[in-house]
Amino acid sequence: xxxxxxxxxxxxxxxxxxxxxxxxxxxxxxxxxxxxxxxxxxxxxxxxxxxxxxxxxxxxxxxxxxxxxxxxxxxxxxxxxxxxxxxxxxxxxxxxxxxxxxxxxxxxxxxxxxxxxxxxxxxxxxxxxxxxxxxxxxxxxxxxxxxxxxxxxxx
Length: 155
Hints:
Helix content is 25%, strand content 28%. By secondary structure, the protein is an alpha+beta fold. The chain folds into two domains: 2-60, no CATH class; 75-154, no CATH class. The protein has a seven-stranded antiparallel beta sheet, covered by helices on one side.
């Protein structure tokens, strides 16, 4: 009886390994010649991840920018510091501290969450790092001394 159970167990293990190997195999993409030597991405798979489905090696934007918007559909937007400060003057801030001791400031406008800032920064001390035109509005990234510390969505 023990030999029969052991045999069935080993057979199940072998079948599982075969199916696992087949499932893990991804294959090689057919058109690997699309990459260029000047790009840092190196291979076609990394190019698709970094530059989107078309594998364009131009100036790349990140693939995902948050809020469910894909990076390849974004265009940089011109926005002034005055517009940002005027918009942020209407925002209420909900501060809380994480269990690790990091201060997070939630930006809320009319009861709706629009963004966050990680760290205990004054809104007037932050500057615009970059802004992108999205399907939902303009996503603005805020920085302090050149480091991105937060973002919010202007509708």
